[in-house]
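Work Package 3 (structural annotation) set out to generate three-dimensional models for the target panel prioritized at the project kickoff. During this period the team completed the workflow that converts sequence records into discrete structure tokens, so that structures can be stored uniformly alongside our sequence database. As a representative example, we reproduce one entry of 155 residues exactly as it appears in the project archive.
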Amino acid sequence: MMTDHRRVTDAGGETVVAAEPERTPARRTPVSELEMKVRETDLEPYVGLRYLSKLFRLMALILALLLLAEIVTGLSTDGRAAIPNLLAEASRLIVLAGLLWGTGDLAILLVDIGHDVRAARILLGRRAAQHPHEHPESEAPAAERPEPSSESAAR
């Protein structure tokens, strides 16, 4: 192995000969653009889940408006006598509205998870395309595969 020598002047003005080891370039296999291309199915948006999220949030807002209307109607018709019934009904509607709003947030979370999975799939595909020797596409032919031993077949 050959080494390159380089002359360097140090702080004292003396010339020093430094040896640099020979660098071997990393082996890269050429990757075609077709292998690096992102599929259209990987870029499709999650339109349905976004609409579902908006629908659940809209339903939660409608329940909040209904709660407000029920409180106004109850207090105007029955006065203070309606407060125990309004509290029970208000707690049910608030819990249901909260569940609907949370379901809308879960739909958005599913969209984000889908984006992460797609990004991981794209990056893994690019990694596999850059290093095909690490990820063989086909298995060894059946004749070259080792036969299962009698011990593993008995299990």
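DSSP finds four helices and two strands in the chain.
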